[in-house]
Amino acid sequence: HAKGEGRGTVTVFEPGMAESRRDELILEGALKRALDNGELVCHYQPQVSLSTGRILGLEALVRWQSPEMGLVSPGRFIPVAETSGLIVALGAHVLREACRQYMRWFDQGANPGRMAVNVSGRQLRSGSLVALVKAVLEETGMPPESLELEITETFLVEDLAIVPILSDLKALGVRLSIDDFGTGHSSLARLKDLPVDKLKIDQSFVRGLSEEGDDQAIVRAIVALGGSMGLDVLAEGVETESQRHFLQSLGCEVAQGYLFSRPVAAGDVSLQAVFP
Ligand code: C2E
Ligand code: MG
Ligand code: MG
Ligand code: MG
User: Fold this and answer.
1) Which residues is 33 bridged to in the sheet?
2) Where is the EAL domain (predicted)?
């Protein structure tokens, strides 16, 4: 196979192109090899306090540095990893790597705050996540309260059976956050039953913040909701000073986005405050 995959593959996987089952299988094979060959690495993006500029945590975001295809974005390969089941091994790799890296910083006397790791629906349902998290905490020495697992809202709405799994994760002492909040149509009744610590406002609402209108109202409402439920609220995808200004005026205290830093390789992370 490998021979035929060279240049042709690049054309096959043009962004935005609907992937046929065959293309998906090729990508799946390549991803499996990538996992074995250590081509999957974590980049890290800071989560920043808007009042002090301090870095409160880092989110680990997986990157595939493919020798043939270059840097492949998670938007392309995470869905394939999900359908094929590879996400379970991939997720374990990311979790372990992120916790190890956290402890490397910690041992160097740096304070990375918290480490946030994305967890997919399939991983949650795999039946092995709680044991994995427990094992990784033990083998790395990572303090459980410094680990935050991010779960997208869409998934939390779909599957009611995961609440006991979330409770088991909470019992390990880790934190849980709802990713892409506002896009998954979760009911407030549902939210009340979830043992979560944080809401991450989806970047689609942050994008329109600078203009008067619905996005400002939505962000204000999420901040109020989080506040009254005792949840932290973080805004994703902050790119401009003007968005930052609006978030602060709406009472949102924590943010993440290109304005502060893109996701970068571990060696390029600066844990200094992003503004004085
Ligand atoms: P997410 O968890 O909501 O991560 C935020 C995404 O927004 C990241 O894209 C990040 O690079 C991007 N981003 C951050 N700041 C800005 C900004 O200011 N402007 C814009 N336009 N984008 C910004 P990325 O790294 O491509 O990841 C996309 C999605 O893939 C993630 O969304 C997450 O759902 C998934 N993902 C990434 N890594 C993992 C992983 O290790 N495991 C799982 N299961 N999913 C992952
Ligand atoms: Mg996330
Ligand atoms: Mg998100
Ligand atoms: Mg997302």
Assistant:
1) none
2) 24-276
